[in-house]
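Pilot study result, target chain (326 residues):
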Amino acid sequence: MNTTHKKLISLWASSLIILSTLFVSNCRTPDHDQKYQSKSERLVMLHKNKKRNYSIYIPVSYERHKPLPLVIVLHGGGGTGKGMEETLTLGEWNSLADKNGFVVVYPDGIKKRWNDGRTDIRSYAHNQNIDDVGFISSLIDQLSSELNIDQQRIYATGISNGGMMSFRLACQLSHKIAAIAAVTASMSETFSYEPSTPVSVLIINGTEDPLVPYNGGEIRLMRRTHGKVKSTSDTIFFWLTHNKCDHTPSQINRFNNIGGDGTSVNHKIYRNCQQKTEVILYTIEGGGHTWPQGFQYLPEGLIGKTSQEIDATSTIWIFFKNHPKF
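Predicted structure:
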């Protein structure tokens, strides 16, 4: 065999090794105990004959033998999972995932909406009674079969329509979800679901939210109504009752315009709940329909102020980290 022939065979063998390595790393089969490159991927799954899209971010520290928490991040009405990941939360969830070791998934609602339990005649998701609870449940199961997900540390959070969907998940998937965090969201006035087990709940709502009123009532966008919600206090009462917590806060903190943006924060923690759960409320006084320290996605005249008093993303993650399911 001449030298040229040997070199060709060697090059061919090297190419096969490279290709096989790429194939294995992209498959993410559960049989391989290996680290994965930290990156976001856009994927599709089929649920009830509908293609459901989602983005997933796996931290660089992922190893098959080590179970990691799962955080489900839900976009608001008119948004997308990718927009929630990259724009509204400024990519901070992915950074926190790398630093703290958890998996993040950003699902898409059909036609950019979630069926959160409201009566909203303008929403396809509500009119068609899209089974978003079933979709999220199946997504949890699929990711748990593909990755080593800690079943005691599965969480959901979202803004607006996504926050309202988090409430519904906490009720109907309370056997799977340990805690939720809802931003600029209250429960539907017609909400009729109840959790089968306690779930820790964190709420971040602005008093000057022009879309989802802090004190309850009609959701209004561009002079159109999109159903009604309970007040923030009634939403808190619902969770205090179902988690069997003390109805008097055990701790109250106040942050007075630290960020110099005209907003302040009233922080209440309710403890002595069943199964070590807690209910926490951050009232953003002067805050709008926004994610604190997130992207001001529309002018202040339309959605109100984005508070700089707290970092909503890191605040929510710390809450999740401290509240596994017992």
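One observation from the pilot: The CA atoms of residues 178 and 276 lie 11 Å apart. A full batch analysis is planned for the follow-on phase.
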